[in-house]
Amino acid sequence: MFQLTGIRYNYTTTHTLSFPDWTAAQGDRWLLTGVSGSGKTTLLHMLAGLRQPTQGTAIIAGTNLYTLSGNKADQFRGQNIGLVLQKPHLLSVLTVEENLLLTQYMAGLPQNKQRIAEVLSILSVLEKRKSMPHQLSQGQAQRISIARAVLNLPKLILADEPTSSLDDLNCMRVLDLLETQAAACGATLVIATHDARVKNRIANHLHLESVQTVSGTL
Ligand SMILES: Nc1ncnc2c1ncn2[C@@H]1O[C@H](COP(=O)(O)OP(=O)(O)OP(=O)(O)O)[C@@H](O)[C@H]1O
């Protein structure tokens, strides 16, 4: 489903993050682990096409991600990749439904309120459809964030620390939702976390060693 090869990222000219090659099959579930600062978020952002690596290639759903630019990159991401970030990043001036309509629009897909209602209903937040983001609880906002990630039936779902601020019950609920929704889309699921509660639930682990940070230019 995706294949990362020779990925390196420079935040500065003297500080290079070097990542292991990584291949995942369609429908696989992966955990991305590593100590704080090992590069989990950086790698997830590169997998999502939000950052371009300094070096290396990413083939996702048969497409060479970093050769796309502008609208094409946005549409590819919108149609193929669902992203759940630590904070939902909903647009504060739009209702929940309008935020989700925007997600369809950005992907170049027709606006489909029925699909939005379906996803909100599955995630038990349909009654929040007309609410503004500030009217949501943290747990509701997170479920809206998952709804947005799965709305366009992506092939790849990426979640960055989706459980770190949650109690045990809500941690398990969010994992259930991510796994169920990934299965419903037939999507590959990648969860970046250092939350020990997540580790036993997912078989495939990519562990980033802190030593993968190397000094010097490429
Ligand atoms: N904007 C930035 N400028 C410079 N260095 C950065 C920047 N963002 C991250 N880094 C560095 O890159 C490395 C990897 O950061 P990253 O956020 O990807 O790690 P992480 O494993 O996700 O950490 P955490 O578990 O704490 O979220 C760290 O050493 C960090 O200090």
TrEMBL record:
Key words of the record = ATP-binding, Nucleotide-binding
Which ranges carry the ABC transporter domain?
2-218
Instruction: Give the InterPro entries listed for this entry.
Output: AAA+_ATPase (IPR003593), ABC_transporter-like_ATP-bd (IPR003439), ABC_transporter-like_CS (IPR017871), ABC_transpr_LolD-like (IPR015854), P-loop_NTPase (IPR027417)
Against SMART domains, the record matches this protein to:
AAA
Q: Recorded GO terms, molecular function?
A: ATP binding
The name on file for this protein is ATP-binding cassette domain-containing protein
Give the lineage.
Answer: Bacteria, Pseudomonadati, Bacteroidota, Cytophagia, Cytophagales
